[in-house]
Amino acid sequence: MNDQPQLDAIRRAPKVLLHDHLDGGLRPQTIIDLARETGYTGLPTTDAEELRAWFRAAADSGSLERYLTTFDHTVGVMQTREALVRVAAECAEDLADDGVVYAEVRFAPEQHTSTGLSLDEVVTAVLDGFQAGSQGRGIRVGTLLTAMRHQARSMEIAELAVRYRDVGVAGFDIAGAEAGYPPTRHLDAFEYLQRENAHFTIHAGEGFGLPSIWQAIQWCGADRLGHGVRIIDDIQVAADGTAKLGRLAAYVRDKRIPLEMCPTSNLQTGAADSLAEHPIGLLRRLHFRVTVNTDNRLMSDTSVSKEFAALVQTFGYDWDDLLWFTVNAMKSAFIPFDDRLALINGVIKPGFAKLKWQA
């Protein structure tokens, strides 16, 4: 029996995705179509394959700030209800085609109001799209409403997330460049969410170091960490491979705080130099609550299956490892415990067991 999972088989595995940006996963042809329909100008090309390659090349800069500029085009064409519904529906379809059975896809409502849509209209359009795209496809899609850390609308977005939490909004997030914009700037929003018993994650430890992670957890009370790769800075590894955890790293591991890691994206933004050197290898060995995610499927030209396949090739992971990552993600989802348990025991474990047996 060959325990080395191959990409085709990985695609059939029931997977879970916690960190995926709606505006980072558009189909290239959809961008071209929407640009033509909405009058958006400025695309570098109107050939779908050339556009796909341009996004990947532009994102391979090693700079988070440069990486974020590629979103000017995707956000630019997502300014009408029709565009938002289409993009969300296609997102659900693409994830289902990759074998994802549960996903939390995030977006920033405040970035989609330039043509007059209200925040509520933006949210309902995306929710309608997810519902349409997931219909009959064996996938459940929730969304996270994201506030931009360099803006001052986090309380407004937090209230929006609470208002729609019973109809598809799973939680709240903040995103954007970390340096100079600490999460504590949005403390009132996080305190409000805690009072409302709402879930939230915070981008931390990607473009900035341990202080960003510490603030996200100890000041803001984050349920999960978006990326969190710089937690590695609080771990010392001896020549014999033994590891000594600092107090923050030990706290993150002891409290089972989920790390939403996105290996390919992390390489693009300079958070790691190579996949072999990516902290995910050590953190998995030390049994942190590691999850594997896509971040931006268009910019990274990736999928959950491709991320898993790359980890298999780099670290020699087998089906048990991939199941471990997947169960970690499902345990960490922002849906009720009974729903998580039903997916783990009724879908994920049986699905992986079948694939392992077939191998």
TrEMBL record:
Cofactor binding note of this UniProt entry: Binds 1 zinc ion per subunit.
Record key words, sorted: Hydrolase, Metal-binding, Nucleotide metabolism, Zinc
InterPro entries documented for this protein: A_deaminase, A_deaminase_dom, Ado/ade_deaminase, Metal_Hydrolase
GO-annotated molecular function: adenosine deaminase activity; zinc ion binding
A GO BP annotation: purine ribonucleoside monophosphate biosynthetic process
GO CC annotations on file: cytosol
Binding site for substrate: 21, 23, 176
Reactions listed under catalytic activity: adenosine + H2O + H(+) = inosine + NH4(+); 2'-deoxyadenosine + H2O + H(+) = 2'-deoxyinosine + NH4(+)
EC numbers for this chain: 3.5.4.4
Pfam families xrefs: A_deaminase
Listed NCBIfam families: aden_deam, PRK09358.1-2
Functional note: Catalyzes the hydrolytic deamination of adenosine and 2-deoxyadenosine.
Family, similarity comment: Belongs to the metallo-dependent hydrolases superfamily. Adenosine and AMP deaminases family. Adenosine deaminase subfamily.
Protein name, entry field: Adenosine deaminase
Gene: add1
